[in-house]
Amino acid sequence: MSEKVMFFVNYRDVFDVSARMRLEFKIDYTKLRDILLEDRNLERAYLFSANKAPLSDKSKEFYQTMEDEGFEAVKILLKGGLTEKEK
Question: What Gene3D superfamilies does its record include (predicted)?
C-alpha cells in the first residue's frame, strides 16, 4: 500500500486571480506543473482547488504531463475538502 502524500498549493500561486471578478477560479496549469515538478519524490499529489469543472484541453494536457513525469495520481479536490483515507 503506497502512502498518500498531501500536497497543498497556495491558490494565489496557481490560480488566475483576475478570474475572481467572474466568480470563478481558473488554474494556471503551467505554474501548477512547475510547482509539482520541483519535488520529484511525490508519489501522489492531492490538490485542493475551488473548481470542479469538466476537463478542458489545458487541464487534460496538464494531467498527461504529470502522468508522463511519473506521478501515480493527481486529483483536484474541492477547496476545504478533508483528507482521503485508504479503504
Answer: 5'-nuclease
Residue 81 CA to residue 42 CA, distance in Å, equals 20
* Entry pTM: 0.32
Q: Domain ranges in the chain?
A: 11-78
Binned at pLDDT 50, 70 and 90, residue 1 comes out as very low
pLDDT, tens digit, for every residue of 35-53?
666 654 443 343 433 344 4
